[in-house]
Amino acid sequence: MPLPRSGPVRSEAARQAILQATADLLAERGYDALTIEGIAARAQVGKQTIYRWWPSKGAVIAECLLEGKILPGRLLVPDTGDIRHDLSQWLTTVFALLGEDQGETLLRSLVAAAAENADTGRRLRDSLTGSGSVAGRLRSAIGTAPNLTTDTPVDELAEALSGAVILRALSREPLREPDLVRLLDAVLGR
Amino acid sequence: MPLPRSGPVRSEAARQAILQATADLLAERGYDALTIEGIAARAQVGKQTIYRWWPSKGAVIAECLLEGKILPGRLLVPDTGDIRHDLSQWLTTVFALLGEDQGETLLRSLVAAAAENADTGRRLRDSLTGSGSVAGRLRSAIGTAPNLTTDTPVDELAEALSGAVILRALSREPLREPDLVRLLDAVLGR
Question: Which residue, among A71, A138, A126, A125, has the nearest Cα to A98 in the 3D structure?
Answer without folding.
Answer: A71
